[in-house]
Amino acid sequence: MITSGTKGYWNEKKMKLRQKYPVLTDDDLCYSDGKEKVMLEILSYKLGVTEHEMVRILVDL
């Protein structure tokens, strides 16, 4: 989903997510290498969607 070297890419996605889903906080969107699965689980839970749906949301942004 997100690989190292894509910090600018993630910052763009993060801004779009915050605009579309104001319930998400900076802590929810804090990206760390190797912690993508945890972040995906948190985002899925907060938005009430499955992890598969969350991946789709991220891809479609």
What does this structure look like?
This protein has helices spanning 7-20, 36-47, 51-60. The protein is globular and about 25 Å long. With 61 residues, it is mainly α. Helices cover 59% and strands 0% of the residues. It is built from three helices and no strands. It has one domain.
Number of discrete helical segments: 3
Largest sheet: none
**Gap between N and C termini, in Å?**
13 Å
Rg for CA atoms: 11 Å
What share of residues are in beta strands? Answer: under 5%
Helix content: 55-70%
Q: What's the shape? A: globular
- SS-based structural class? mainly alpha
Please trace the helix and strand order, writing H or E for each element: HHH
Mean pLDDT: 86
Write down the domain tally. 1
Kindly summarize this structure in a few lines.
With 61 residues, this protein is mainly α. 59% of the residues lie in helices and 0% in strands.
Keywords:
61 residues; mainly alpha; 3 helices; 59% helix
SSE layout:
Layout: H1 7-20, H2 36-47, H3 51-60
Helix pairs in contact: 2-3
